[in-house]
Design brief:
The chain has three helices and six strands; from the N terminus they run E-H-H-E-E-E-E-H-E. The chain is flat and about 45 Å long.
Length: about 110
């Protein structure tokens, strides 16, 4: 099954992190990546630029509106994602326990 791992955190945590904390985060991502390759595979994964770089597109009929910034005011922002191929959701849950203390949303991919 394909699962998208969405990682949310207050952007200020990373912005204010010491080099030691950033290294700890990267070590956790490396451990996650290694384990994911053993139990399935990572199909994609990227860190995202800050929410200030976002553009929200709203379409209502033929009207299209663009707004700088995120769709909603939130305390945690989407900071990155992985797309995994794993045997089942239980494996994905075990794998994300290796990541730093993010709020993580797991979303199975829909097939049409």
């Amino acid at each position: 099954m394909k699962v998208v791992v969405l990682m949310y955190e207050d952007e200020q945590v990373w912005a204010n992190a010491t080099e030691a904390v950033q290294e700890k985060y990267m070590a956790a991502h490396n451990a996650f990546s290694d384990a994911a390759q053993e139990k399935g595979k990572i199909l994609a994964g990227e860190a995202l630029q800050t929410v200030a770089t976002a553009t929200t597109v709203r379409r209502r009929g033929s009207q299209v509106g663009l707004t700088d910034g995120p769709f909603a005011e939130i305390t945690e922002q989407l900071g990155g994602f992985y797309v995994l191929e794993v045997p089942d959701l239980d494996v994905a849950v075990e794998l994300v326990k290796l990541l730093p203390e993010y709020t993580i949303e797991l979303r199975p991919v829909a097939y049409f």
